[in-house]
Amino acid sequence: MDPSLTGLRVLREIAERGSFTAAATQLGYTQSAVSRQAAALERATGQRLFDRQVGGVTLTAAGLTLLRHAVVALDAVAAADRELKGLPPEHGIVRLGTFPSAGVLILPRALAALRRTHPRIRVTTREATTPALVRAIRARTIDLAVLASRPPHRQLDDQAPPLESLTLSETTLLLAVPAGSPLAAGDTVELEALADQDWIAGPSSTAEPTMGVWPGAPGRPRIVHTARDWLTKLHLVAAGCGITTVPPGLADTVPPGVRLVEVQGGPAERRRVVLARLPGPCPPAVTEIIRALRQEAARQPG
Amino acid sequence: MDPSLTGLRVLREIAERGSFTAAATQLGYTQSAVSRQAAALERATGQRLFDRQVGGVTLTAAGLTLLRHAVVALDAVAAADRELKGLPPEHGIVRLGTFPSAGVLILPRALAALRRTHPRIRVTTREATTPALVRAIRARTIDLAVLASRPPHRQLDDQAPPLESLTLSETTLLLAVPAGSPLAAGDTVELEALADQDWIAGPSSTAEPTMGVWPGAPGRPRIVHTARDWLTKLHLVAAGCGITTVPPGLADTVPPGVRLVEVQGGPAERRRVVLARLPGPCPPAVTEIIRALRQEAARQPG
DNA sequence: GGGGTCCATGACGGTAAGGCATACCAGCCA
DNA sequence: TGGCTGGTATGCCTTACCGTCATGGACCCC
Predict the structure, then answer these.
(1) For the HTH lysR-type domain, which residue ranges apply (chains A, B) (predicted)?
(2) What pLDDT sits at residue B79?
(3) CATH 3.40.190.10 residue ranges for chain B
(4) What is the CATH number of domain B93-168+271-299?
(5) Chain D, protein-covered positions (CB within 7 A)
């Protein structure tokens, strides 16, 4: 008895999504089907491949080794498909994953610089949360990820082999306030002044801590708007609808009517932008991207 | 719709065996099942993969490209299987195919020499007919083949890319006769003297010309024994049961009671021992084997 | 403790895979 | 020309698997 191709596909999706249910919806299956496929894989290999934990699953060591080979097999049939369709092979393309706010910061400039210096390198980009990106690296769905990390800066996950990570820049969080607001009076505001404010947050998700609300702000934050987009959030701030947190890289792109101020009186809210990838040989295109990203990160205010 | 793993396995087997029926028996399937799998593959890819000809099938260009990727995928799941079972990975092993009489000639000595100079290189060996070996190279089931070739030395097959071949040695056929026979009187015999003789031939197959009977011998050969094994054939000769052809490499291993003589009066029966492999990068272990085989071939009488 | 989120599992239908028998086709030989 | 011998294709049938639905059980959080 041996694994089926769909089984391997399911394995990869589980590895990437971190749960049977998420993998199922992604693949257009039922959760039940994915559960069965997972069971079939474990039966076929005779080993436990998944660690069922609350809130999802992670791969066991055996699951990771199977995943490693599964990706090779799946990529081979995908390559066959492309080649038989007459499409060009995909190697040389670097798949880059980014956390949401990287998209408006270093990423476009780094890619533009890269296109000038190395026009042959093709890059595809995918935006996702940090844990999703870490899983995607392990599932070999992306080659490189730009991640956000907050103290304490632990390892990205506790699977083997540990991911190779490289700090691109270390910044401190800022607060975006309407230009007319009393909070915009000085260059800094006190933490206590953040009580009883209207907040503009990111999309609320159970997994991630709410983005947009200053961590440790006193009282229960009153979230009046949620928006995914930085531009939306900043324009909401400009319209006086509320306040929100922003990374400092946005400093020179804020629309008129928005002021960025620092917050005093709490712990320093330091953020790192981290580059992560699987350990092992690094193809030249990837090293070039890393070089471009580092160069661009160095040029940012920090 | 995409190909299944068993479909790819069937494809590889068809490529290797050269016919649906042979692939079926090899895989333990019915010919019908293989035919359906082949049809399913062609339906899935939307292209003709097989050239149905009399006596079997060959792969079309599309079939060959699919095969190339299929082998990668199948090897990946095989590697996963091995690794999950705790077996060592198989890379570094060179799979060598040989035509039958190579087994008693250069092969053992070359492998012995290789084991002395490079004990780390593992070699597996498989014996098959020349066309089967050529197909096995294309199916990537073997990495290298030692083939016999007779004039005119054409290309090994007419598929793309053409196989890379390298002549190891060029020899001329000899005749093994019982020591007491009138044929053993001198060092040579005349072609006409071969009429009305008892012959010891190889296993008769419809595909291959009968081995063992001197090509162009006058009259209809009277085959009184057939044997696969060189030692068997030579002992049959020693016992006076008949005569047979042998490659000259056996010269120093013939049992007592057997004499090797040349044949005059016909076209020179030249044979080449040829090394063949797919074009492309050559892993170091393979180059070492090639080196050992060439060295051993050079030390043979030729 | 109730609700939400996750995985497991019994029951069920549809599809596809493989076996069997047969049709069919091309070459070969008498 | 008419079997015979390779080979492939295909209609019919059974079976086994795959995915869905619905439900149950474990766990966390509020």
Answers:
(1) 1-60
(2) 93
(3) 93-168+271-299, 174-268
(4) 3.40.190.10
(5) 6-11, 18-23, 27-28
> How many Å apart are A37 CA and D18 C1'?
9
Exposure on the CB side of residue A181, measured as CA atoms within 13 A: 26
Position A207 scores a pLDDT of 47
Q: Answer whether A194's CB lies under 8 Å from A266's CB.
A: no
| A93-166+273-299 classified as CATH 3.40.190.10 | yes
pLDDT the model gives residue B66:
93
Asked whether residue A20's C-beta has any atom of DNA/RNA strand C within 7 A, the reply is yes
Q: Assess if CATH 2.80.10.50 describes domain A5-84.
A: no
Pairing of strands A56-59, A50-53: antiparallel
> pLDDT by residue (tens digit) across A257-273?
889 998 888 777 788 88
Q: Estimate in Å the CA A21 to C1' D27 gap, whole number.
A: 16
Q: Where in chain A is the domain with CATH 3.40.190.10?
A: 93-166+273-299, 174-268
Mean pLDDT by 10 residues, chain A (302 residues): 89 90 89 91 91 85 92 93 87 83 74 88 83 89 88 79 90 87 88 84 60 78 74 80 81 83 84 91 92 85 52
CA dihedral A51, A57, A63, A66 (to 10 degrees): 160
pLDDT at B206 over 70: no
CA–chain centroid gap for B69, Å, is 25
Q: Write out chain B residues lying below 8 Å of A69, CB-based.
A: 76-77, 79-80, 83
What band does B277 get if pLDDT is binned at 50, 70 and 90?
very high
The Cα–Cα gap between B144 and A284 comes to 31
Report, at the CATH architecture level, how domain A174-268 is classified. Answer: 3-Layer(aba) Sandwich (3.40)
Query: Which residue is listed with tokens 């084997």?
Result: B289
Of residues A295 and B105, which shows the higher confidence score? A295
Count the alpha carbons within 13 Å of B83 in the hemisphere toward its beta carbon: 18
Q: How far is CA A55 from CA A30, A98, B133, B214, B217, in A?
A: 17, 23, 53, 77, 81
